Amino acid sequence: MLRIFAILILIFINNYSNAEVKNKIISNLNETNNLDFKFEQNINGKIENGNCTIEYPKKIFCEYARSNNKILVSNGKSLVIKTRTSYYRYPIEKTPLNLILDKNYLIKKINKLEERIVDKNLINFTIVENDNEINIFFDNQTYDLIGWQNTDIYQNFNITFLSSIRKNRVLSKNLFKIPIQN
Questions:
Q1: Residues whose CB is less than 8 angstroms from the CB of residue 121 and which lie 6 or more positions away in sequence, other chains included
Q2: What digits encode the pLDDT tens for the residues 108-147?
């Protein structure tokens, strides 16, 4: 009888702890209007890095280091990837960033999903939507978004890690302006 009682207490503590983690992540997301960070992106083994700024909902501006002046910009409706020699424009709803950059969507999903603790440092939620699987990662200490893993529109496996995260900074109004095609 004592053993059953101990098991029930452990289950209760684990469920309480899981709910507390979710609540802290959701609270942190609710309090975040924008964030900027350094990133490292691995697409099928090709590693790129740079700096990004996200403004919720669905806006992002990234400058890639050591590239052909590569930038990625979303104004919330369109996503543009531009280099010195190329220009690609997509409706954001056709990309995984449509979900990743929507904090209200993330909050709704996190409320329903079970988290997975990875190496005691990361909290992972796996979102499956429209035949797409997106893994979202949060820091287990700060509850900040620290990365995602998905398959892009070209079926490339993409892992993005965030570091040096700063939140709720004053942003330029033109930061998310879609660049013109050359």
A1: 139, 140, 141
A2: 999 999 999 998 899 999 999 887 899 999 999 999 999 9
Residue 134: strand pairing partners = 127
pTM as predicted: 0.86
Domain ranges of the chain: 2-167
| pLDDT at residue 93 in the model | 92
* The two structure tokens encoding residue 159: 């892992």
**Is 161 in contact with 40 (CB distance < 8 Å)?**
yes
Tell me if the domain spanning 2-167 has CATH number 2.50.20.10: yes
CA distance 10 to 92: 44
Instruction: Evaluate whether 76 touches 86 at the Cβ level (below 8 Å).
Output: no
Q: Which residues pair with 163 in a beta bridge?
A: 38
